[in-house]
Amino acid sequence: MENLISEGLSLMVYGMGFVFVFLTLLVFVTNFMSKLVVKFEPAPQPKAAPQRVATAAVAQGGNDELVAVMSAAVHKYRS
């Protein structure tokens, strides 16, 4: 009976040690890969600001009714 408990405890220690080593290795590899991706990632391209449709329609001498309809749609969507 004493031998069985001893084997169980040693197996528990080896198992917990293996899991600890594996998780520690996983953390280091994940951090390394994160730094590697950031290093070789292309620089982000600046995005052009979207042009407001209603303002563009008014600037081009657009239709007042179109602006009113669009404003009502935006108001209904936001509420």
TrEMBL record:
A GO CC term attached to the entry: plasma membrane
E.C. designation(s): 7.2.4.2
GO terms assigned for molecular function: decarboxylation-driven active transmembrane transporter activity; oxaloacetate decarboxylase activity; sodium ion transmembrane transporter activity
Biological process according to GO: sodium ion export across plasma membrane
Membrane topology: Single-pass membrane protein
Localisation per UniProt entry: Cell membrane
Superkingdom in the source lineage: Bacteria
InterPro entries per record: Na_pump_deCOase, OadG
Quaternary organization: Heterotrimer of an alpha, a beta and a gamma subunit.
Protein name per its UniProtKB record: Probable oxaloacetate decarboxylase gamma chain
Organism: Neptunomonas concharum
Higher taxonomy: Bacteria, Pseudomonadati, Pseudomonadota, Gammaproteobacteria, Oceanospirillales
